[in-house]
Amino acid sequence: MCLTPPAIACSTTRGWPAALLLMLLTLPALAASPEAGRTKAQQCAACHGLDGLSRLPDAPHLAGDSALYLAAQLRAYRSGTRQHPQMSIIAAALSDEDIADLAAWYSAIAISVELPYDGGEALSGSD
């Protein structure tokens, strides 16, 4: 993949805008602080839990989600692209740093999954 600007000749110039965009989107995540996110997540805990496990039936679990996904959703709420009665209000007050820190905290939470077993074998969901 070529990452040079289009003004400089390159054999594969189609991929450089996407690569540049990906790098720019990941920069906030690199500077994010999970520790700061944990402190900031206190306001999220009533619905999403400090551990990222939802306390309400209509609030999603956040633990282990991708930092890029979480940050994108918070930015969408902040900009009004995505609407929710509570989240739109809460996200409106978040800075880019707040969003990066919260995304870093919730994405850093390790989760595990245990499949149900039937007679010693995991159920596959298809019989």
From TrEMBL:
Cytochrome c domain: residues covered: 32-110
Keyword Heme: yes
Keywords assigned: Electron transport, Heme, Iron, Metal-binding, Signal, Transport
Keyword Ion transport: no
Transmembrane segments: none
Region forming the signal peptide: 1-31
Protein name: Cytochrome c
